[in-house]
Design a protein that fits this description.
This protein is an alpha+beta fold. The chain contains 5 helices and 19 strands. The termini are far apart.
Length: 426
């Protein structure tokens, strides 16, 4: 099972460029670049490998590259930041406040043993605050900060040291001494390390089908100037790396007269043990067919007798090009606004006509109702009078002697009608 997983990992590294970055957690270093390069046979290949951090500087420059300084942040009575002291290997430590001279210090052997702790004697109430230990190594581009909080008390029982979740807190007795810790044991902060023995660069070649641990070593480069070439490729100037690689930080590999046997993986390893730098750059080189031979350039024709072209009186008419620009979006929106405004105006007019028509109809109906009511009142009075007269006429007692006499009744009804008609049309 382990063998199968190893083969899968090798295949992923060889055939998948995206997998190269996943194998960067190995001890060989971090993969910063992975490229596929295809060039025709017979051409020259340049595999770039640059790193400004690998530029070699003399040991005398390291004194100005390593610096430690302590800062104090006070929150009361108002927020303020104060530089307490700073120190470098080639100079004495500098204390900024005259009151702290002889009272605040850092060990003189700090850059040898990596102990940059701050010593404060005769603690006073103004010493309270948050102290920050800042370690800078500009050459190696490394920066580190450690915070410690100092509180001052007058009670012996309240002295203690604890962790508040972000930093260490010291509660010390007024007038006593305290050591605020800042320790870094990494070798880059120590003296006695020769830089030229710490910087190494080398190229490896892995042919197709070869395991990574069986790759061939091409060349080793040291900051001291030592070079170790492996095989006859460099002796025959088939491959080359510039002589001032560590001066310029350029470790590019040049391969002349490419052949099919040159295809495979080329790995550039950069190691700076002093700074803790380990980088890899991987290039998969593929060799294609050679370029076709370019035909010989033809000689230009030479006209011994140059005769200018005869001039004509024809005048070329200017060419007119019609360009139709598409309508802009604002133009369309403007016309749409006009159309919508027109529709809205028409809608208002229609609504106004409908409202006015309904009001006119309502007024006419009210007028007809009033006339009808007045007519009913007049006719009703006349009918009441006529009815009384009719009742008076009808209430005349009939003679019992003429009962069942139709002639007598007809005569009486005629008389009543004559009287009624006379009064009505009078």
């Amino acid at each position: 099972m382990r063998l199968d997983m190893t083969l899968l990992h090798i295949l992923a590294v060889v055939f998948l460029p995206g997998a190269w970055g996943q194998s960067s957690s190995s001890s060989l270093g971090v993969v910063l670049e992975a490229k596929n390069i295809t060039l025709p046979a017979g051409s020259q290949a340049v595999l770039p490998c640059h790193s400004p951090r690998m530029v070699w500087t003399r040991d005398t420059l390291k004194d100005r590259q390593r610096v430690v300084h302590w800062d104090l942040v006070r929150s009361s009575p108002e927020y303020s930041v104060e530089r307490v002291l700073d120190m470098s290997p080639g100079a004495r430590q500098r204390v900024y406040n005259g009151f702290n001279k002889g009272r605040v210090s850092v060990s003189e052997s700090a850059f040898n043993d990596g102990n940059f702790s701050l010593i404060i004697n005769n603690v006073v109430t103004t010493d309270r605050g948050v102290y920050t230990c800042n370690l800078h190594h500009h050459y190696c581009q490394m920066h580190q900060s450690i915070q410690v909080q100092l509180n001052v008390t007058k009670s012996v029982r309240k002295e203690k040291r604890y962790w508040d979740g972000e930093k260490t807190v010291f509660v010390v007795l007024l007038g006593s001494s305290v050591v605020l810790p800042c320790v870094n044991r990494r070798p880059l902060w120590r003296e006695g390390l020769q830089e030229d023995q710490q910087q190494v660069a080398h190229w490896d070649f892995q042919p197709p089908g070869v395991r990574p641990d069986k790759a061939d070593r091409l060349i080793d480069l040291y900051a001291s100037g030592e070079r170790r070439d492996y095989g006859l490729l460099f002796a025959k100037n088939k491959m080359s790396v510039t002589e001032d690689a560590f001066t310029l930080g350029d470790f590019s590999l040049s391969i002349a007269e490419l052949k099919p046997v040159d295809k495979g993986l080329y790995i550039c390893h950069l190691h700076h043990h002093y700074c803790g730098l380990h980088e890899r750059r991987i290039f998969r080189l593929s060799v294609g067919p050679p370029l076709p031979a370019t035909p010989a350039p033809t000689t230009p024709r030479v006209f011994h007798k140059y005769e200018p072209e005869p001039r004509t009186n024809e005048v070329d008419s200017p060419r007119v090009v019609n360009v139709i620009l598409p309508e802009q979006r604002s133009y369309f929106m403007q016309h749409l606004g006009y159309f919508l405004a027109t529709l809205l105006l028409l809608a208002f007019i229609v609504v106004g006509v409908i409202v006015l028509t309904r009001r006119r109809k309502k007024r006419g109906l009210d007028y007809d109702l009033r006339r009808f009511e007045q007519g009913n009142v007049i006719h009703g009075g006349e009918m009441s009078v006529d009815c009384t007269e009719l009742r008076a006429c009808n209430q005349e007692p009939l003679n019992s002697d003429h009962k069942n006499n139709l002639l007598k009744e007809r005569d009486m009804s005629k008389d009543c009608n004559k009287d009624f008609d006379g009064r009505l049309w009078k």
